[in-house]
Write a structure and sequence with these properties.
Layout lengths: L1 E2 L7 H12 L7 E3 L5 H8 L6 H22 L3 H28 L4 H8 L1 H16 L4 E4 L1 H4 L14 H17 L3 E5 L2 E3 L5 E3 L5 H12 L3 E6 L20 E3 H9 L10 H6 L3 E6 L8 E4 L11 E14 L9 H11 L4 E6 L3 E7 L3 H9 L8 E14 L9 H11 L6 E3 L6 E7 L3 H13 L4
Parallel strand pairs: 1-2, 1-7, 2-4, 3-4, 7-9, 8-10
Antiparallel strand pairs: 5-6, 9-10, 11-13, 11-14, 12-13, 14-16, 15-16
The structure holds aspartic acid (ASP) and magnesium ion.
The site of magnesium ion has 4 residues, from loops.
Length: 454
């Protein structure tokens, strides 16, 4: 079971989460993120040169935030005292790391990961203490200490699944034998040599999937403050309907292309072991939420969901023969990748190669490509304020005419489409429109496929 920071905002919220954990008699492993806002604060603190006295105030702020929550969620004096001591230990660790950063005026990727990991190291203490207060034998554990192993890529590591399983299975089994419930930090692991490495922002969902994979769990529950996946963002289309079942592919596409429900990397470790992922709402635990399973489970006519991303840009690289000269795409994409620019989609024609990237990455991309502006590249153009829509459904793979319905709905709105990608995935189409047209395009497509439901 994984719980995110936004479900742990107050003492009341913390108790709500812990009641869910304490209910039922299955064996459970809990994975949690940092309290809401804490990772952000850590990153911001590292964002500029700091004076020594700023550290003290920062640590005090962190302490107050965590201790205040502890007071609200735990009534037993003994439990509270023990948790307080643990929190202070971890804050000492944070303080020392911050002094290192301030004195050395140096911030290596390794240091950044160590500092960012502190949010989770603190939050597990609170969750475990609240559970203990309810009579559950909960034990807080740090993922590095437990043995979640990573490939060592600072800032965006992947887990090494077999090594992780080897480390954590015996430990967890031992805890189960003693009637204990492990509460594990999300977001990071360590290299085989012991260096802390994070999985990237919002990586706790992925941590939970890694743990589920290692333990061959029966199911993985990702608890949120929404009912699960919806047919579209209800903030934009109020007729949005909840989705009961998604295939792994559908969930992965939606998550990668903007649905904020699940971290896109969560699906992979679960899929490898055929583990069903349930996305559930902490406010309505009785609801089933969305189940994510192997494909073919629920054939639905039409589409299941629409997701979108807002702040994108298209970078167009013109040059005669860009389409047939060998190595053009690979050269450009490796330049972009080396510069740290993520490519969301690509399309090519004879005279132009177009890449879809984040709007924020435009200056980086321009610099990277400017340097290699020779040979085939004649001219580079960027189109900003682009939005991407992703239409998902297993039906796209076997039912005829869905694309026609999607694009007819778009055309009826008088919206023009700039880039289309179809066929790469059997379960998704995506295409881009100008950002200003995003909302009405989304509504038009939703209406085309779901108006009977609304
Ligand atoms: N606390 C981390 C973050 O804010 C990881 C997570 O929330 O999943 O990115
Ligand atoms: Mg989070």
């Amino acid at each position: 079971m994984k719980f995110g920071g936004s479900s742990l905002k107050s003492g009341e919220a913390m108790k709500r989460v812990c009641k869910i954990i304490a209910t039922g008699d299955e064996l459970k492993v809990v994975v949690v993120s940092a309290l809401s806002g804490v990772t952000e604060e850590l990153i911001q603190f590292m964002g500029q040169l700091r004076r020594e006295d700023e550290i003290e105030a920062f640590i005090k702020g962190m302490e107050d935030k965590h201790i205040a929550l502890l007071r609200e969620s735990v009534s037993s004096e003994t439990v509270r005292k023990e948790a307080c001591a643990k929190i202070k230990d971890k804050l000492t660790r944070l303080e020392r790391a911050l002094y290192g950063f301030v004195y050395l005026e140096e911030l290596t990727p390794r240091t950044q990961d160590i500092i960012q990991s502190l949010g989770e190291r603190l939050s597990v203490v609170l969750v475990a203490a609240t559970l203990q207060d309810m009579g559950v034998k909960a034990v807080p554990i740090d993922a590095d200490e437990l043995g979640i192993i990573t490939d060592g890529v600072y800032g965006g590591a992947s887990a090494v699944l077999d090594a992780t399983a080897k480390n954590i299975c015996p430990r967890i089994r031992h805890m189960f034998d003693r009637g204990e419930t492990p509460v594990i930090t999300g977001f990071f692991g360590r290299t085989p040599e012991g260096h802390v490495t994070i999985f990237g922002r919002n990586g706790s969902d992925y941590s939970a999937a890694v743990v589920a994979n290692a333990l061959n769990a029966d199911s993985l529950e990702i608890w949120k403050d929404v009912d699960g996946f919806m047919s579209v963002d209800p903030k934009i289309v109020k007729e949005a309907v909840p989705i009961e079942t998604l295939s792994y592919d559908e969930a992965a596409e939606l998550s990668y292309f903007g649905a904020q429900v699940l971290h896109p990397r969560t699906v992979e470790p679960a899929r490898m072991k055929n583990i069903t992922i349930y996305v559930k709402n902490v406010f309505r635990p009785e609801l089933r939420g969305t189940a994510i399973k192997p494909s073919g489970v629920q054939k639905v006519q039409g589409i299941k969901s629409i997701s979108f991303m807002k702040n994108l840009a298209i970078i167009k690289i013109y040059g005669a023969g860009a389409g047939y000269k060998t190595g053009v795409i690979s050269e450009i994409s490796s330049k972009l990748t080396d510069a740290g620019v993520n490519i969301y989609s690509a399309a090519t024609s004879q005279t132009c190669v177009a890449f879809l990237i984040a709007k924020n990455d435009v200056p980086l991309a321009q610099r990277a490509l400017e340097a290699s502006k020779r040979g085939v590249i004649e001219r580079i153009e960027t189109v900003e304020d682009i939005a991407l829509l992703c239409v998902v459904g297993e039906g796209l793979g076997y039912e005829k005419g869905i694309a026609a319905r999607v694009f007819t709905a778009v055309a009826r709105e008088g919206v023009s489409v700039n880039m289309i990608s179809a066929g790469a995935s059997l379960v998704a189409y995506h295409f881009t429109v100008d950002k200003k047209d995003l909302e009405r395009t989304t509504r038009a497509i939703h209406n085309e496929f779901f108006h009977q439901a609304g």
